[in-house]
Design goal:
The complex is a heterodimer of chains A (232) and B (341).
Chain A: H1 2-17, H2 20-53, H3 59-69, H4 74-85, H5 100-125, H6 128-136, H7 141-151, H8 153-168, H9 172-178, H10 188-198, H11 201-227
Helix pairs in contact in A: 1-11, 2-5, 2-8, 3-5, 4-5, 4-9, 5-8, 5-9, 6-7, 8-11, 10-11
Chain B: H1 2-15, H2 21-55, H3 73-80, E1 91-96, H4 98-102, H5 105-117, E2 120-125, H6 128-136, E3 142-145, H7 148-156, E4 160-175, H8 189-199, E5 203-205, H9 211-223, E6 233-235, H10 240-250, E7 254-257, H11 258-268, E8 271-274, E9 281-289, H12 299-310, H13 312-320, H14 323-326, E10 332-333
Parallel strand pairs in B: 1-2, 1-3, 5-6
Antiparallel strand pairs in B: 3-9, 4-7, 4-8, 4-9, 4-10
Classes of the chains: A mainly alpha (232), B alpha/beta (341).
């Protein structure tokens, strides 16, 4: 128990002091996971909407695949990305392994199915008559799609939060494709694991507190946006 | 609630064939435009912000971008520290063991090497076994590992060149301070392990083919003790730090390198029970991956790192490392000494 208080107070101390290493690690976590979430949204919302509004042979198989992807273990994503980015792998010439872009790629693989799956559910959850109504009012197809997405913004923001939450907290992929390299790819989660194995439980705890604080702050902003304009 | 009600209204207007229905709902839309566009613009702002942050993501990682960040900086820097030479291929992958990272040694040595040479080192801390597999596949340029027998095979198989003695410390057998099996003070490791096995006292093995694991397996094999599948013999499959934590929780015995034990002792409360046996020497070598394996291997960088580890400045750091914190150095610098292993 004492360790928890020690961790919380040390977290504040590290932040107030502006410990450059902790700041860099925190900022990199935010950059990598923020970028990955953004790319997942750019890919996931159109894909999810398309899946929700179309029917084709094998549609259910694809949806099942997406739903399975929502539970994709980060280490599996990490392993696959590692094999692809290896020097001797198909994308080896890009020299991406053990760099922040590699972590972004792995995290996109983790977050995209979540965004696609939740977008799909959100759009399908809209009353099907709404589409007819919007088209009947003379909206063009892009206008209709925009209105549908806008109509589903509450569950879509939940998708943003779920995607971001999944990638900022994952460790397996970041460790594998990033390598936890000091000053290059060390993020909050990998640093926490390393400090734990070093036996520095107080530092590990401080990093956990910072991670939770960061996730809370991001979710606070998103929730504020989500709940804005709603009575109660 | 509100959305549901609105959909209901839309449905109603849809069902009723009323000439004014469309006008009504268009008006609704107009009235609603203000509250909905605001959140949309906020989302846009956030996304832009994330994008802006993302664009900056690459810059802190690339040291090559550092000189000349501000127009005034270069002249000041130029007089303070000589700019490191620019290697043709600055990316260097070092595959090493968890003990060199968990003890904190590499966090001290690597920045020094980078400053001196201009290389950018990617340190991948895994077990010695995995580190050598990375070398075999040409996924690493240089190795710093402690599994002499495997290293010799590695060289013999044509995967590595220029294997050099860097430093040593020793392995110790640790366990709970109460030492139920009474192995404290026993002179040889095999005698102590035999006592543990005979008493069926819990022993935690790394089980991950790391240097420590290989040494431990070698001891059991030499003794002829079967450990596979025994209830008292448990494999953690994790790094040394984690394995020590597990041993502490289970009040079990284990073999560890001295450096990691000293670094984690304050939490584990494990005690050193057996030490000083010649069989427990823990020897670290630096080995370059043979550049003939693939033209992607950074041979120049590997040579530079090897030279650095044997240089006086690195050896001095190694010899002193940990003395201030633990009262004794964690490693003994060995460059240039006769190599028996």
């Amino acid at each position: 128990m004492e360790l928890i208080w020690q961790g919380i107070s040390q977290a504040f101390w590290l932040l107030i002091q502006g410990d450059p290493e902790v700041l860099r690690v925190t900022l990199l976590s935010l950059e990598v996971s923020g970028t990955a979430t953004l790319i997942s949204l750019l890919v996931g919302i159109p894909a999810g909407t398309a899946l929700a509004l179309t029917r084709f042979p094998g549609h259910r198989a694809v949806v099942s695949l997406v739903n399975t992807g929502m539970g994709l273990p980060p280490v599996v994503a990490g392993l696959v990305v590692t094999v692809f980015l290896w020097r001797n792998g198909p994308f080896g010439i890009l020299h991406l392994l053990y760099s922040p872009p590699a972590m972004v790629i792995a995290q996109c693989v983790i977050a995209s199915p979540i965004v696609v799956g939740l977008t799909l559910a959100a759009i399908q959850n809209l009353n099907p008559k709404l589409r007819v109504q919007i088209l009947a009012l003379g909206a063009s197809r892009p206008q209709m799609l925009w209105l549908l997405v806008r109509e589903a913004r509450l569950p879509l923001l939940a998708a943003v939060m779920a995607g971001f939450g999944a990638v900022i907290s994952e460790i397996g992929a970041s460790m594998m494709v990033g390598g936890n390299i000091l000053g290059q790819t060390r993020v909050l989660t990998t640093a926490t694991v390393m400090e734990t194995s070093k036996g520095n439980f107080d530092v590990a705890f401080a990093l956990s507190v910072i991670l939770l604080g960061l996730v809370y702050a991001v979710n606070l902003v998103l929730t504020y946006v989500q709940q804005r304009g709603r009575a109660l | 609630m509100r959305r549901a009600r609105r959909l209901l209204v839309l449905d109603k207007t849809n069902i009723r064939v009323h000439p004014r229905s469309s006008v009504v709902s268009i008006q609704r839309n107009k009235r609603r435009r203000n509250p909905t566009t605001k959140p949309a613009s906020i989302i846009a702002t956030i996304l832009t912000a994330i994008l802006l942050v993302a664009c900056g993501a690459g810059s802190p990682a690339s040291p090559s971008a550092q000189p000349g960040v501000t127009p005034t900086a270069p002249s000041v820097q130029a007089t303070a520290i000589p700019a490191p030479p620019k290697p043709a291929n600055p990316d260097l992958i070092l595959a090493t063991t968890t003990s060199t990272q968990d003890s904190g040694l590499l966090d001290t040595l690597i920045p020094l090497f980078e400053k001196q040479t201009g290389y950018k080192v990617k340190t991948i801390a895994v077990g010695s076994g995995q580190a050598m597999t990375m070398g075999e596949r040409g996924e690493a340029d240089v190795l710093l590992v402690h599994a002499p027998d495997s290293e010799k095979k590695f060289i013999a198989a044509g995967h590595g060149i220029n294997r050099q003695l860097v430093m040593h410390n020793d392995f110790v057998i640790v366990g709970p301070a109460e030492d139920a099996v009474k192995i404290k003070g026993i002179k040889t490791a095999s005698e102590a392990l035999k006592k543990i096995a005979d008493a069926k006292a819990t022993f935690v093995s790394r089980g991950d083919n790391s240097g420590t694991d290989q040494l431990e397996k070698k001891l059991w094999t030499a003794m002829g003790t079967a450990t596979k599948g025994q209830a008292w013999y448990q494999e953690s499959g994790q790094g040394m730090g984690q394995t020590l934590s597990i041993a502490a929780e289970k009040k079990a015995y284990t073999i560890t390198d001295r450096a990691t034990h000293l670094a984690t002792q304050k939490n584990t409360q494990l005690a050193i029970l057996v030490e000083g046996d010649q069989a427990l020497l823990n020897i670290y070598h630096v080995t370059q991956v043979d550049p003939k394996k693939s033209d992607k291997i950074n041979a120049a960088g590997a040579k530079a790192f090897s030279d650095f580890m044997l240089s006086k400045s690195a050896q001095d750091v190694i010899a002193k490392f940990g003395a201030d914190k633990y009262g004794q150095p964690l490693f003994f610098a060995d460059a240039g000494k006769p190599d028996a292993s």
